[in-house]
Every structure is written in C-alpha cells, then in structure tokens.
Amino acid sequence: MIGRDLLGTEDLDRADIERILETAEHMREIGRRTIKKVPTLRGRTIVNLFFESSTRTKSSFEIAGKRLSADVINFAAASSSLKKAESILDTARNLEAMDLDAVVVRHAVAGVPKQIADVLSAPVINAGDGAHEHPTQALLDLLTVRREKGRIDGLTIAIIGDILHSRVARSNIYAFRKMGAEVRVAGPPQMLPAAIETLGVKAFTSLREAIDGVDVVMALRIQNERLSGTYLPSVREYSATYGIDREKLKFAKDDAIVMHPGPVNRGVELSHDLTDHRPGVILDQVRNGVAIRMAVLYLLSGRRQEGDPRLDLESGEEK
Amino acid sequence: MSEQRIWIRGGRILDPAAERDEPGDVLIEGGVIVAVGAKLDASDAQVIDANGAWIAPGFVDLHAHLREPGQEYKEDIASGGRSAVAGGFAAVACMANTHPVNDDPAMTDFIIDRAKQDSPARVYPIAAATRGLEGSEMTEMSALVEAGAVAFSDDGKTIMDGGVMRRILEYSKTVGSPVITHGEDRHLVGEGVVNEGPVSTKLGLPGNPAVAEDVLVTRDLMLAEMTGAHLHVAHVSTKGAVAAIRRSRERGAHVTAEVTPHHLTLTDEALLGYDTNAKVAPPLRSKADVLACREGLADGTIDAIATDHAPHAVHEKDLEFTEAPPGLIGFETAFPVVLDLVRGGELSPLELMRRLSTNPARIIGRPGGSLAIGAAADVAILDPEMNWIYDPAKGYSKSRNSPWAGQTLKGRAIATIVAGRLVYDVDRGVLYP
Amino acid sequence: MTSQQVDPHLNSQPPSGGRVVMDDVAIRRALMRIAHEVLERCEDLERLYLVAIPNGGVPLARQLARNFKQIADVDVVVGILDTTLYRDDLKIKAERPRLRETEMPSAVDGRIVILVDDVLKTGRTIRAAMDALMDFGRPSAVQVVGLVDRGHRELPIKLDYVGKNVPTQPDEEVRMSGLGGNLDGALEVVVMPGEPESSGGMR
C-alpha cells in the first residue's frame, strides 16, 4: 500500500495507482453536488509550500483540500533559500513545529520534496520538483485517459517535446508503464535525457515515427527561455518539426486523443485548430486534477508519523 | 623536534620504498627511524603494541581543502590537521582556494607558520596557478616555491584558456613543481551536478557528462607532452580520462595522477536519495568508470590516492541539491574505504600503502613514504580488521559532510607518528598539539 | 458458486461456524412487510426517495422499490449514498477505508427519504448518512429502514422499520452476504463469533 509520502509515481505500484484512481472517481462525484464539500478532513491542516509559482497546481490542491474540509494554508516561500538566511530544511523544521497533517511541496530543484520529507513527520506530497516528478499530474492524466478510452492497459502513448526538462514526462512514463501502456518519447535529440530508454520507453527524434498508430499524444509545454537559441534555434523551427497539428495527427489512431499538461503555448506545441478541438478533454483534465488531489489527500492525510527519530539527527552538540 | 623514543612492536611492516612486507618492529628516536627489523629490544622506550596491525609510512594526501584563511567555520589548519592524523595521514597538501587565495608568497608563509603551531600533520601548501584563481594571470611560481609551495593548481576551477595553461606548464619547468589540473570543461559541465546518465535522468538533475572530463584532461595531457612539464591530474573519475592518461604515459609524458576514495568505491547511484553529502566535483560516476579507476590505480596509470577532503557546514549541505556545494570530508574514512581494493584482490597491502604514501610524496618531492633507517619518522599504524561506526560528529573535522556517516567501516588508523612524535592514538585521540 | 444460487440452503452454514439468522426467504418476506408499512404511513407516494447505504443497502432498496411497484404501482427513485467520507473515526485511523459509489439521481429537497441499511449497531453510519444527505439538500422527512437491528446503540438513532431484531454480543459480527458471491442474488444474514480484531465500530 501507498507509503507515507507521495514523492513520485516511480514509488507507486499498480495496486496503489488503481486505488488512487478509484478513489478519485468517487471524489469527482462530490464536485457535481450543490454543496461541494465533505467533512472528512475537518480540523486537519494542509500546507501548500510552493517555492516556485504555479497558480494552477496550487489552486487545484487548495480546492481539493477545502472540499475535504481541511484548513489549507498557502505558505509563501522564497524561490531560493540562498536568497534568505534559511535553508529549505530550516523551513521544513519550522513547519514540523506546527503539527501539520500534510505538506504539498513545489520547487524548481529536483529532490527538495524528498529532502523535506526526510525531516518531517507529516506526509509530503510532491507538487512538482525540477525535472524530477509531478506525480499528481501523471495520475490525473491517467484518470483522463482512462475515462476517455475506458482502459490504459494496452494503449500506446507518445510524449512529445522537451523531455529533458520535464517532470511531467518522467511521472507519466512511470505511471503509464505501470498500468500496462507502451510509452514513447520524442523530441529534438538535445532534449532527450541521457539513457532515457533505461526508463523503459522507446525514444524517437522523428515526430512522425513516434506518433505512428498511438492512442494518446501528449504534448509538453516548452519553456520560452529554451526557444531562444541555447536549446533550440527558434519557435518557428520547433513548431514546424515537433508541434502537433491535424496533418501530423493523421499518423496517430483515428480516435487518438491529444493532451497537454497546460498552459498551452498556442501555435507552438499544439496548433490553433487543435487547441480549440475538443476543449472538453482539457477541462476534464482540470476536473480530474481536483479529484486526484482529493484522493491523494484523503489517502495520505492519516499518515503522520509520530516521534520520527530523524528529527534528532542534527541536535548533537558541537564539538 | 621530538625527543620521544618509540618502539612499535610486533606488526606487519609495509614499506613500499624498500619493497618490504614482513613482520617486525620499528624503533624511533630523535624524530627519525633508527631501527627496523625482527625482535628489537628497547625496553626503555614508549611501546606501541602493533600486534595484528600494519606499520606503514604515514600517509601523504595530495589534495585537501583546509579552508584557512577565510572559511574557518568549515575547517581550519588545526582541525584539518587533527582530522588528518586521525586517519593515518602524516602530511597534507592543501589547495589554494582559500579566502584570500594562496597566490602570494605571504599567504604560503602564513599557512606554513600556522601549520607549525596548530597542526599535528605536516602541511604542504599548493599555490594557485593563476592570480585569484581567475584563470588568466600567472602567479609568481619561483617566489611561491621558495616560500614552500609544493605544486600549482587552480583546483575547483578549471583553467579554460588553453593558452594560459600552456604557458603555466612551460614556466613550471623552471621551478620543477607539478601543475595540478582540475579537468572539467566548464562549458560541457554547464549546470551539471550529477554524472550524466541513467541516474541524472531518473533524478531529474542536470547532467555533468564524463566527456567534460575526458576533453579537458586530454587537452592538458597533450599540452604536457608538448611542453615536457610535469602535469598532475587531480581526482580522475572517468574511464576516458584513465585511458587518456595511460596513453600519454606510454608516450613518455611526465604525467602523474590521483584518484579519490569515493571515486574508487561509490557510483552515482549513491545520489538516488538526493544525499547532498555525496555531491562532489567531479561527480560520482558510473560503475564502468569506477572499475576503470580501480584498474588504473592497480596498473600504475594512476599513482596516488588523494582524499579531496572538502569540508562544508551542515547549513550549506542542507540546501537544494543544485545549490549545495560539492565536496566531502575524507581523512578519517580514507583508509577503511580504500581497503576495499585489498579485499577485492586488486591491490596488495604493500601496493595500497605505496599509493597512499610513497607515490604522493614522490610527486611533490617531499620526504615521506619510507621506513628507511634515517628517514623522518612519519608512521601510520593501521588495524585492517577493526569494525567501527563512523560518526562525523565524533571526528576531528569541523564539518560533517560525509556519505559514510553512520556506516560500519572496517579498518582504522590506530596510531599516527609525525616526525617521531606520537600525535594520535585511537584510544586517547589526537595528542598534539 | 453457481450451485449455491441453485440451492441457497446447500451451503448456508458458513465454514467459520456462524449461524444464519435470516435466509433469503425471510429477507424477502421482511422487505415486503416493510414496503407495506412504509406505504401505510406515507401520505404522498410521489415524494418517496429510497437512499441506500452501500454495499448492503443497495439490493435491499432495489427490492423495496420493486415491492412498491408491485403493491401500489408507484416508481420510487433509488439513490446510493456512500457515508465513508462522513465517518467519525477517520481521525483515529491511518488506513483509509475504500470509498464506495454515490449516485443520487435526483434532488432530495422536499422528498421523504427512506435510508436503507442492512445491519444496524451503533447508529454511527446512520448519523454519517444523515449528514451526507443534508449536503444534497433539505428533505421534508428522513426515515430509516434496517434489515437487522442487533442493538448496542451508541447514538440516539432509532429505526422506523426493522426486518428483524437480533440480540448479539458486542464482539460478534453480523453480516449480510450474497450466496452467489455478490449481492445480486439470494441473500442471507449471518452472525459470526467474535474475533479479537473485529472492529465493527461503525455499525
């Protein structure tokens, strides 16, 4: 069964994922009620600790927590601990003193949620760390695909774009493979991470080959600063080669769905006609995001660890 | 110097300089070794029972950061020297990246003076190769050597300008000291903090490719061949660099090299839990690289084991992985960690001692690495079987950044003698100063 | 499994030594009686709304709906309301119970809601169900059907309609199960001897 924290989909097994998806399906129903709130986590405190700004993910966790009646506190944190005289672990130790029931962490550097989990007794949920993992995004993508396709087992999914810098790609690779899907990745060679095939995927540099016969095309967001010549020559060249449009989509299955973790750079990763095509899927992703986060908060918020011995590590006297 | 008369009784004498590996005693008097052999009798001397232990020349570390002046909160010459002798090191060469940088004879003087007062281990300053470690203007090598510098290096920062490196190598021939290269091409390293490969991909941290080291080491080897100068390659970590050094030596270049205990025994998989204490530069590499380094050390391509002892405070290592400074403390764990090569059958005890003492002393042209009669009495007494739990908080370094913290290690320095004086004993700790 | 459906009494003695307190025939008879009682008390059949508490309440509510149709030719809506997220023991348990289906096909405002559950013990599930129900609107009345009332109430909850009163020891377990491995076919209610770890706190 799921551990104390949710740091990545790499740590989950198929049964864990099934349990989260099943729970999220039930959580979706709450969103359709007039009173979209259940008393489950009344009196519990959840902290949103976002070192990197993210309106969408933060709001999604906030809504999820509030629908379960938890008190959700948004902890404003400086983007880098070097900018203030406090290390991230000092911040975590301060939070520990507040007796929290769950901490949701987003940070631009990979590994920070794990480092924080190592000093906290409260469960830590990774809301995205650097290019490492973004597990709730992958789980909501699974839920969306399963609702669209009725299954995940046996599907083929192609993830397109800047795989190197993408936590969404990594979390989706683990999650979809564990659920029995075949995963392909494609992008410019300099944006494919070293030894990516060790994660169990097929890597392509040709978009056409990558999406040939697939059920799901997932385009990743490309950061503007990477389009300025250091990683890619230009926006135009990227969208011509790796942008998804109707013409290229013909190589995928007829009923293939197009997904994007958002926000979409219109006309870059997805052509304009595709962004407007079936907006329902994208909105469903948002709805599923709240349901998945409710499920995760519900399943993990009882897992506070009392008297964690790791807290005493640094209290030894100075020599 | 010391007036102590010490009788080390009943150990296994390992003297690489004399190719000696046999049971026996060592007698020390007046700071020098006065007798080596079976069944000495010096009942009036202080006796150290070395039964079951190895008696070897005190270790010589070619690569350490003692942080003084400027960063005494991490380490100083006193604490670093104490930590060194607690690991069996009789002498330590310290890198120039202090604040201010050791690029001036006055700074070299300061370090030597401070070491004489505060450090139980001998301290040999390595001077900067360029002023302020800026990689452009050469330092006054002649004056620095006169002040006591044993080598030149911009360690931690690669001299990226090949023209500057060429001139430094050429000029170093006038003083006969080695130039130590930190071989990492900064542009290829980029933001990289973890060896590029499956581990960096899994961790989602920027990769530092092995080729960054291969390229720069190869450049410096070619410059050494061209200039005929003595190039010493610091902390070799890649298969490619080992191969390049091997080829260069075969062509007769004056090249020496060192490897760290961590690059001999840990792979990048040690980072899978984001342990910033295992973040080092160059980064921990793949299994194939580790095997190549071990092979290179065994076949003589790599001459020496050097710790790259690099202390950092807890609050600095508590940062995000990309922000935490690279480095680990290595004096007190070096011997048990590298004993792994003896257990693996890759090195005999005698050959291991050669790489910890005789070879490094030779590279910087300093005494040590020998138990010959009349030699300065720098001796390490080592128990290769002792099991102990390493707790950095109980060690002598001011810092605690070790990936081996909390682990049970096998093998330990049980006594260290520097210039004929017993400065460390495992039961009583550091005795002097 | 299928042989059990053919002859429900063949294997009605559970291996663990439980005793059957209601077999399928008794359950059907009780549900027919309850349907009559409900209809007798209800002034406006159009406003009836059966709300089943899963899992056991679901087949019972469906059978009641069929009975209403048979007796009075009235179509009564059946909703399903999971009470898990309203449980009062979530704070003290690390393991999270599985959620079950909630499907409320129409609004509850102004309706006469009949909550249907299989086995009643502490009353805590009914308390949770009433809280949940209020989040869906404002019924004009709420009544409770329990197939078995085994006593040991911990909250001031009373049943409006009871299938059978079954006196039990607190540590005994009372379970309604389907003979076909699911709740779609023949049902029975069994009293199992107490086990040290049996909690049953919500019943």
Give the structure's gist in a few sentences:
The complex is a heterotrimer of chains A (319), B (433) and C (203). Chain A has eleven helices and nine strands.
What does this structure look like?
The complex is a heterotrimer of chains A (about 325), B (about 425) and C (about 200). Chain A has helices at about 15-30, 55-65, 90-95, 110-115, 135-150, 165-180, 205-210, 235-240, 245-250, 270-275, 280-300; strands spanning about 45-50, 70-75, 100-105, 125-130, 155-160, 180-185, 200-205, 215-220, 255-260. Chain A is about 35% helix and about 15% strand. Chain A has two domains: about 10-135 and about 285-315, Rossmann fold (3-Layer(aba) Sandwich); about 135-285, Aspartate/ornithine carbamoyltransferase (Rossmann fold). In chain A, helix 1 crosses helix 11 (about 280-300) and helix 5 packs across helix 11 (about 280-300). Chain A is of the alpha/beta class and about 325 residues long. In chain A, strand 3, helix 4 (about 110-115) and strand 4 (about 125-130) form a beta-alpha-beta unit. With about 425 residues, chain B is an alpha/beta fold. Chain B has two domains: about 5-55 and about 375-430, Urease, subunit C, domain 1 (Roll), CATH 2.30.40.10; about 60-365, Metal-dependent hydrolases (TIM Barrel, Alpha-Beta Barrel), CATH 3.20.20. Chain B has helices at about 75-85, 105-120, 140-145, 160-170, 185-190, 200-205, 210-225, 240-250, 260-265, 285-300, 315, 330-345, 350-365; strands at about 5-15, 20-30, 30-35, 45-50, 55, 60-65, 90-95, 120-125, 150-155, 180, 195, 205-210, 230-235, 255-260, 305, 380-390, 410-420, 420-425, 430. In chain B, strands 1, 2, 3, 4, 5, 16, 17, 18 and 19 form a nine-stranded mixed β-sheet that branches. In chain B, strand 6 (about 60-65), helix 1 (about 75-85) and strand 7 form a beta-alpha-beta unit. In chain B, helix 4 (about 160-170) packs across helix 7. Chain B is globular and about 65 Å long. The radius of gyration of chain C is 17 Å and the shape is globular. Chain C is built from four helices and eight strands. With about 200 residues, chain C is an alpha/beta fold. In chain C, helix 3 (about 55-70) links the parallel strand 2 (about 50) and strand 3 (about 75-80). A five-stranded parallel β-sheet of chain C has the order 3-2-4-5-6, sandwiched between helices. Chain C has helices spanning about 1-5, 25-40, 55-70, 125-135; strands at about 20, 50, 75-80, 110-120, 140-150, 160-165, 175-180, 185-190. Helices cover about 25% and strands about 25% of the residues of chain C. Chain C has a single domain (about 25-170), classed as Rossmann fold (3-Layer(aba) Sandwich), CATH 3.40.50.
